[in-house]
Amino acid sequence: MGIRSTLLGVALLLLGASAFAHGDKVHVRGTITNVTDTSVTVKGPDGKAVEVKLGKATVYTLHVPPATDQPAKASDLAVGDNVVIHATPEGNTLEADDVKFSVPAKSAPGKVPNS
To answer: Which is nearest to 106 in space by CA: 85, 84, 83, 80?
Structure first.
């Protein structure tokens, strides 16, 4: 019984630590609905739109499935791309630290994409 209690304690500790791993960073994920030189608007899974400011220090990464990442730049972002953004809250705005994105898969010929 002692080993189970210890393992449970370690598991809970690890879960708690992972929840705070990014400190005050905000995760924004969803689909890009608008992109400009200075910001990107993301529609999240809940349907809400979130604007995130892009800065000179923002790092961009293109994810190519199944598991390849390559450096990218802001001009590579496009409406419809799937994104995960780690951002820092600055007053009432969010400023992107890093943007990881992927281009949506093309639907098969004759198939209508889900909307």
So the answer is: 80
As given in the structure block, the two tokens for residue 63 are 């994810």
Rounded distance between C-alpha atoms, residue 47 and residue 39, angstroms: 19
Domain ranges of the chain: 23-102
pLDDT, tens only, 24-61 = 889 999 999 999 999 999 999 999 999 999 999 999 99
Q: Distance between CA 7 and CA 11 in Å, rounded?
A: 6
Spatial distance between the Cα atoms of 71 and 38, rounded to a whole number of angstroms: 19
Looking at the whole model, is its pTM more than 0.70? Answer: yes
Provide the CATH number for the domain formed by 23-102 in this structure. Answer: 2.40.50.140
**HEC assignment per residue over 52-102:** EECCCCCEEEEEECCCEEEEECHHHCCCCCEEEEEEEEECCEEEEEEEEEE
For residue 56, the Cα-to-chain-centroid distance in whole angstroms is 18
Q: Is residue 54 within 8 Å of 40, Cβ to Cβ?
A: yes
